[in-house]
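The methods section describes the discrete structure representation at length, but only in general terms. Each protein is reduced to its one-letter sequence and a matching series of backbone shape codes. I believe one specimen quoted in the main text would settle the matter. An entry of this sort, consisting of the sequence and the corresponding backbone structure tokens, reads as follows.
***
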Amino acid sequence: MRVLLTESASASAREVVTVLARQGHRVGVVEPKRDGLLTVSRRVKWRHKVPLFGAEPLAYLDALSEAVAARQYDVLLPIHEQLAVLSRYPGAIDVPFAVPPFSSLARVQDKAAAVELLRLLGIPLPVTSLVSSVAELRSAASFPCYVKLPISTGSRGVWHVDGPASFAEISVRTEVADTFARGWQVLVQEPVDGRFVMAQTVFDHGVLVAAHVVERVREGVQGSASAKESVSMPGLVSDLEKLGAELSWHGALSVDAIVDSVGTAHLIDLNPRLVEPVNASLAGVDLVGALLDVSLGRSPAPLSAGRVGVRTTMALMAVLRHGELGHNRRAVAAELLSALFRRGVYRESPEELLPVPFDPPAIMPLLAVGSTLLVDPAKWRSFSKPATGPTTVLSPAAWASLTDQH
């Protein structure tokens, strides 16, 4: 099939292309410029230029419609937050795709609304206060804690606060003031000690059709996972099944959670999209295939559990993590050598993000990052997620424009 992806910058887009190409599909992407992880991939057949999504979602939607028509695609896969504009205007694109109802999306996209939803369903989450002013924010703060804007991602609009000084800095930030000015609530969330896990699911109009859970074995840059292992967590999957049914969810839904010492998974983030599906694919769970099926109105294969203990690595995230932690060039070099010779955490763990044997140009991002950080590890920020934010992430103003029209 001809499959069009809604962006090309993110790790998820890179991995979806890998899975699709391995299944024999031909893939196109839309992008404002060629600077993401798929810049030089041999597995992308068509590229279409579009405006920056985060700043101009409606102009992006018009360009996306033109791209669909240009190559007569069979199906569209929303990879990142572009699904928000597709959910808001489902009739604007003349090709099959799967997105939830906009009213359901709003209960997940808005972190404050998501807190209320989880409380309603009795799904565990960390102790959380919702505040509507700077005064309430100051009253709710206890240290350590996390302060989260309602429209944000793990690397944008989320802060770990370890004391009064950092809290004072955050409380006067412009984006916090803007959030309160819009009448939105900010989250103050207590940390939970435990293991970090990520779950990916696909729903067919509220019915769970695919699910996979991985544990973060090793932390990567900006909270990502540079090493993962597939795990079995039926309790978490059951909670997500309840969540999807409540929302009549259609399409992909992913969550991050912390599993405490007694095995309870506390949900800390909900993402209305498919996240990094290669580990699932290697474990025998075809999340991408399930998403294609529900997009095309086909009945997916029966829900089944994948293999436990499947490990994968993401060398790029590990190298960038050294820069984030302030490590020296020797640490960067050691990481690169371990990845090259498959030593340590890389032993018997396939590379999921940059599949060089399958797509040789995929090595280019790692070469660019590695060579830069070998000279100056502090330059990791030039490769960090916020640099591609407007490509993949809705700005608060853009989200407000979509909700105001609904």
Summary: The domain at 2-99 is CATH 3.40.50.720 (Rossmann fold). The chain has 16 helices and 14 strands. Residues 57-71 form the longest helix (15 residues). The chain has four domains: 2-99, 127-189, 195-312, 313-389.
